[in-house]
Structure formats: structure tokens, C-alpha cells
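User: C-alpha cells in, sequence out, please.
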């Protein structure tokens, strides 16, 4: 069994292939974050959940009731992140009596919900401007905030399922600094051997 089979099961279904692609792609961003900062990708997961929670809290002021659920999920994840591989997630879902593809279906649904929510808010804003309706504009802003807040939430959901190596001992910045120091710093000019041999001895 290869490493991919161990962490990313592939049953050949489009949903599974898409979910694995998203997890691996976001995992590369998590690895990039580690290489640049030297900090664990888990810090990025936690920060993303906190940003989304703040966005959902803001959208509640615009009467977005659905943000109550998303806000709760975000806050819960900041306390208890769900770091499981896709195959572990499938096993846990089946143990609790859910379909094994429940997690990947939820992530994919939220991913496509983002452009739908923002598009719906844009249409509502256009109608509000056209009819000079304050309520329509007000609700449209709330929808746009909620849609934008789903982006960091879903990003964290995918990243928490990725298999990311440990942070490097040296960040890219430190490696670059050492490279320049080693290769571009002035070096002493060697003295010819012939010149040394002609020097008077004491």
C-alpha cells in the first residue's frame, strides 16, 4: 500500500478524487507556510478558523441566521481542530452511522456554496440599488460577508485533513541568508607562494 493509499483513499468516484485534490493542494500551501515562517501549519488552521468566526459574527449583525451555525462550528474548531486523514475520517463516519463520504460531501458543498452566496448577494444588491431599497442592500452585505467568511473556514477544513511534514529546522529566509553570507561575503586574498618564500626569516 502506497502512502497515498494509506492517507488518501481513492474509490474512483469524482467526489473522492476532487476532495483528495483539494486536500493535497491546500496541504502544499500549508507546507509553504511552514517553509516561510518555520511554524506549524496547525497555526494557520487555527488562524483561519478564527478569521471565519469573526466574519460570521459580523454577518449576524446583518440578520444572517445561518451564520449562527457556521460561527458555532468555527469556534468549536478553534478549540478542537479535527486533524484526521481522509481514511480516518471515513472510518469514524461509519462508526457513528454516517455515510463514509459525509465529510468530503460537506466540504464540497460548502466550497460551492461560497460563489452561490456571493452571487445571490450581488443580485440582491443590484435590486436594492435599482429600487433604492435599504433592506435589500443591508441583507446583501450580510450575505457577502458570510460567503467571504466561508473561504477561510473551508480552507482550514481541507488543511486539517492534509498530511503535512514537520516544520523545517531552517526557514527559506535563513537558508537564503546563509547562502548570501557564504557566497557573497568578501574573502581574504591569497598571498602567492613565491612571495612568501622570498621573505626574510628571523
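Assistant: Sequence out:
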Amino acid at each position: 500500500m502506497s502512502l497515498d493509499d494509506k492517507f488518501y483513499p481513492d474509490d474512483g468516484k469524482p467526489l473522492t478524487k476532487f476532495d483528495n485534490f483539494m486536500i493535497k493542494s491546500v496541504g502544499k500551501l500549508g507546507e509553504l507556510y511552514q517553509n516561510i515562517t518555520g511554524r506549524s501549519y496547525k497555526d494557520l488552521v487555527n488562524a483561519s478558523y478564527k478569521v471565519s468566526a469573526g466574519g460570521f459574527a459580523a454577518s449576524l449583525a446583518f440578520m444572517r441566521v445561518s451564520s449562527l451555525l457556521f460561527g458555532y462550528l468555527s469556534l468549536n474548531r478553534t478549540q478542537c481542530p479535527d486533524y484526521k486523514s481522509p481514511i480516518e475520517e471515513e472510518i469514524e463516519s461509519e462508526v457513528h452511522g454516517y455515510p463514509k463520504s459525509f465529510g468530503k460531501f460537506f466540504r464540497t458543498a460548502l466550497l460551492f456554496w461560497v460563489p452561490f452566496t456571493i452571487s445571490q448577494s450581488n443580485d440582491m444588491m443590484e435590486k436594492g440599488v435599482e429600487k433604492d431599497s435599504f433592506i435589500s442592500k443591508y441583507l446583501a452585505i450580510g450575505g457577502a460577508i458570510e460567503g467571504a467568511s466561508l473561504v477561510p473556514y473551508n480552507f482550514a477544513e481541507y488543511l486539517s485533513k492534509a498530511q503535512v511534514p514537520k516544520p523545517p529546522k531552517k526557514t527559506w529566509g535563513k537558508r537564503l541568508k546563509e547562502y548570501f553570507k557564504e557566497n557573497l561575503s568578501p574573502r581574504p586574498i591569497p598571498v602567492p607562494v613565491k612571495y612568501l618564500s622570498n621573505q626574510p626569516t628571523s
